[in-house]
Amino acid sequence: MKEAQPSVIYLNEYQAPDYNIHKTHLRFDLYDDYTCVTSELTISRVPGRDTAPLVLHGQELELVSLKVDGKDLQANDYSVDEDGLTIYQPPTSFILNCVTKILPHLNTSLEGLYKSNTMYCTQCEAEGFRKITYYLDRPDVMSEFTTRISANKARYPVLLSNGNKIAQGEEQGERHWVEWHDPFIKPSYLFALVAGDLVNVDDAFTTQSGREVKLQIFVEQKDIGKCSHAMQSLKHAMKWDEDVYGREYDLDIFMIVAVDDFNMGAMENKGLNIFNTSCVLASQDTTTDASFQSVEAIVAHEYFHNWSGNRVTCRDWFQLSLKEGFTVFRDSQFSSDRGSRAVKRVEDVNVLRTFQFAEDAGPMAHPVQPASFIEISNFYTLTVYEKGAEVVRMIHSLLGAELFRKGSDRYFELHDGCAVTIEDFVQAMSDVSGRDFTQFMHWYRQAGTPTVSIQGSYNQDTRTYTLKTSQACSATPENEHKAPFHIPMATALIGQDGPMPLLLKRAAGGQPQKHQNKAFSEVLEITEAEQEFVFEQVDEQPVPSLFRNFSAPVNIEFRYSLSDLQLIMAADDDGFCRWDASQRMAVSVVNEVMHELGNQPAPVVNQYLLNAHGQLLDQALAIAEGRAEGDLHMLAYAITLPSEEYLSQQQSVIDVESTHFSRARIKRKLAQVHYDKYLKLYHCLNENSAFSVDATSIARRKMKNTALSYLASSAKQEAIALCERQVSYANNMTDELSALTEICHSGSPAMTKLKSSSLTRFYSKWQEETLVLNHWFSVQASSPQPTTLSEVKALLQHPAFDANNPNKIRALVGGFCNRNPICFHERKGSGYSFLADQVIALNRKNPQMSARLITPLTRWKKFDDQRQALMKSQLERISDSEGLSKDVFEVVSKSL
After folding, report:
1. Catalytic site residue 791?
2. Which CATH class is domain 1-108+120-195?
3. Most C-beta atoms within 10 A of its C-beta, which of 38, 224, 674, 831?
4. Residues near 471 by Cβ (< 8 Å), separated by ≥ 6?
5. Would you say the pTM of this structure is higher than 0.85?
């Protein structure tokens, strides 16, 4: 390294602050080439800390003036360095006045106050506020904020901050000002400011107590027609949170602002949520079904934070999942209630098993409650969010909905207005249930994905079925030896006619279980390294349906035969388990084809998969034609083969080429065998009805485009014509983009001829729509054709690509490195050097984005020797580059 290594921050070294900031008055004077920030802080020292200096955080600030109780401080009263301001002997209680000068127009990190196009906006989570003014920038310092913003009225007619507007006026020089007051104390990370030439969509919501809340979404003029879906999503979320959690909104106004340049998806600043445009804008022409659903979920997520994150916040950043894991669970519940519960569960689990499990198995593995970090921005991860949500879901499963609601009520009531810990949340659940969660806390404090190995045996003479379980968890960087987890395993036994009645004879330790009535599903609690469960009165050899609804985030080892899986797919009533059986069958067949691929050019595809696939297509046709009822969306997922990324996670050493070509071989075979069914299904669902984003319409489009994808794999002229027609005449972005993807990703000569003209036509049609062009970049970047990397490099110079915009970077660079394994892992390492180039270039401009891009290189130990050496050399090149940020240093150093 060229510079001193950054220091590590540890959870067990937490100390409460020496000072409190009771009131925070801020004044922002916005000018073209700088912003003047004036802060007035009412501060008091915590009793017993009599000798403690006041140490305020601050970065990239120019200190203009500093006063205590109205008197200028002398040079020997304080000191300033690159990390902050220290006042050596302040009074016990005092008013601190500080003036700083900052340069938002040059702030490419997108933290603190910065400019996105012509708009001023902020992002203060986790530690961005210290780039605005000197402050105790930590979540356990909560203050009452008043903010006054002054700017040129013509260019910045809209001036927004947290809370309620309390005053406004005019200034000399064509300027104006607005003052906002937030009556609820909050930490600095929830502060927000926006100034720009914006228009707004207004609505209102009447709370359960009868208060009317004004709702506003602010956007640029060009986007005014894309706000209705987000507004309706907000109102649905407000009503749902009242109905399900009893949580009512507290301020007089709730505002959302759409911003083009944003590192994250959205931010829950109190009363003034700032959103990445991709997470709030939606219209039929420009937005896919997946994005419509994403907008609804993210709007709900940020709104739900008003209680699970704002009113009750984190004591420190090691508790990040306290708000994020809980709120992801809440938004997942909401989305399930708004659509198909089974589909939502499959979507969540697919992300978890494909990407979070990989995170758990890599060098950046960390517990849901990390024990240490160098840069907190690196811990906004799938582990903290998605796995954290799964941990909350397990508590919900163990307690049941009624007790969980009582626990959440107690949590909010006890800690309203406080900064608390994960332990406080779990204790509230313990208080209402009487449960001891001591062992369960391993889920928060141990990294890694446990593997549960299960053996099943049926005794026909005694009519008993026995499940023997064992659990283990691989070593991770923070801990080599893991204590047993407390694992809820929802279980059913499937017979030829479906789930069988259950009577559990004994659990671990032989303790008898008393049951008044037989159930069809049982939540078994695995708490020991090895355990046994026995079911009585089992009248036939069953197939176990394990971890129903994915009741715990674990790897599951059970030797299902292909006939067992076919029975689950046909007879189980758990949507997740049916989908999981289809995926297990596909993985098994992929492995068979991979094994044979080296011996023959066209390996046989197992007939079990072909038959099972045909049965699912028959079900889909019956639903599509109105002859039966069912979930087309769920069936679309069931007939979709596992992704290359997921298949790779099942391998001890990833075989890039065999995985890619085996999956393609199977998909092509399915297309050939069932071509007529796919074609019939496509035509049946290719309806010319009015566009809607209700669950049924989304499901029908999902199945139609899944069928089109298989048809395209056949490379028949008829299928090619369907793709060409759909991309030309689609009346919605889901259909248009699906067809464009098939054209660009197919390697057939006929499709390749269409590729250039289709991309040109798409760009010409949508060149003014920034979010649509992100799809245009992503489709090209993820194409598995050999020329893709050269095309991606050329696109870096395209006029529509902005190297400072996170969405563009994610679409093009991320699209290639994260969603195109066959090209990124090209044997000579060209993909690796390309990614390293992008990381190094972005490091100084936007460290957060730079660090997040590195992820594909961090998993180098999962590959063959040649690729390992190439990936490691690029990590070393990044490590040796000048001016490495803390964000990038932490990821690279842990990876090496």
Report:
1. no
2. mainly beta
3. 831
4. 450, 451, 452, 453, 484, 485, 487, 526, 529, 554
5. yes
